[in-house]
Amino acid sequence: MYKMVYFFGPDGTGKTTQAKLVSSWLKEKGFRVWRTSVKHHHMLSYLVLKLLYSRGPKKEVISHHGFDDALARRIRTPWKFLELASLLLVIFYRVILFMLLGYVVVCDRYVLDTLVVLSYFLKNPKLMAGTSVKLVTKLIPRNSLLLYLDAETDVILWRKKDEPLTTRLIEYYRRAYKILVKQLERMGLTIVQIDTTSTSIEDVYKLVLSHLDSSEVKPSCQTYLGSC
User: Fold this and answer.
1) Which of 28, 29, 83, 137 is the most buried (most CB within 10 A)?
2) What is the mean pLDDT of the chain?
3) pTM of the model
4) Backbone phi, then psi, for 41, in 5-degree steps?
């Protein structure tokens, strides 16, 4: 069995729903399962940012749309290091510790999602290629099932209509994830891609289970209901 089952992709594509279903399935099979989510904003970096760059009680220094414009250039380098420090701490007690204890870890957000979001906030798409990608993939166990979930922008916006998301933001994330997936494939990683735009939760779940319940060696890219 895989050490990690990792769902990644834009918000609104069904990652959390599928992670819950897979966790239940694995438990029914007798596996010890730990379901977790390593989100992109971590306590250490956010607290330091608030302390150093207070803009007043009604002014948020960070939001879904990125940093306050006055901060963008000033915090670019320190933010990277703060995020890394926060990320390593979170990864240890939410992921690595449970792997060491023999659990199958099911993630609906992890280091690849952090990299995509960081590229948006730092306005640096180059993070999607090269050294940054190689570094974060070292934090993903070799024996992992990586599932990239995507959906059309208008569908994501409808699913997340109660959240402050915009077309521009979602389209940036979708482009960034596609660039990242191509980079991962060039590195030899196996990525299962599933388009959830018009696919029922049950059908997506069946596709996921077909990989969990199979011992066949997979090619480097498999796409369902979409294109590589």
Assistant:
1) 83
2) 81
3) 0.80
4) -95, 115
